[in-house]
Design brief:
174 residues, alpha+beta, Beta Polymerase, domain 2, 2 domains, 5-stranded mixed sheet, 5 strands, 20% strand, globular
Length: 174
């Protein structure tokens, strides 16, 4: 059995390694909707993503399946660094865009809000779909009846108030 994701982050000394950088742990473990094959996602901001990638390489380059991928773009620089440790895949998404503007962070925040709003039944339904192989955003979209691209259209839910979301989608559990 693999350890709790917080223990893995502690063992990696993540807060020390990234102490000079802005980052956020996102994804399914902090939302408590992770399944056996879930990974640990960490969003990072840096004006020069290479700086964080180099820091990660220096600290974790020796770990199993260490991979760096560069996704160059004219507007947004993105690097992905991943590796495996203690039965977990750990993925860093490094962008030259502030955290609060990164899609991964925005997805995390809307999913957290939806889970708080709609309670344990939504949580268990999402976990059930994830165990069947459905990715997180498509699982939320399916359960809420969000049509179209789940990665784009879930972000649009942030514009609605909690009352509007309840009226449009579900009756929350209290």
């Amino acid at each position: 059995m693999r350890p709790d994701y917080n223990q893995v982050l502690d063992d990696l000394r993540l807060s020390s390694v990234l102490s000079e950088h802005e980052y956020a742990v996102i994804g399914t473990p902090p939302l408590m909707i992770d399944v056996d094959n879930s990974d640990i996602d960490i969003a990072c901001f840096a004006n020069e993503p290479d700086e964080i990638a180099k820091c990660l390489r220096n600290n974790y380059g020796h770990l199993e399946h260490f991979i760096e991928k560069n996704h160059p773009s004219t507007l947004l620089q993105t690097q992905v660094v991943s590796f495996e440790t203690q039965g977990w895949q750990v993925e860093f998404f490094i962008q030259n865009q502030p955290l609060d503007q990164q899609n991964g962070v925005q997805h995390f925040l809307i999913e957290k809000r939806l889970l708080n709003l709609f309670g344990p039944s939504l949580k268990q339904s999402v976990i059930g779909l994830k165990k069947q192989g459905t990715k997180t955003e498509p699982a939320f979209a399916k359960l809420l009846g969000v049509v179209g691209d789940p990665y784009i259209n879930l972000l649009k839910l942030d514009a609605f108030s909690d009352n509007q979301l309840c009226f449009i989608y579900l009756t929350p559990e209290k």
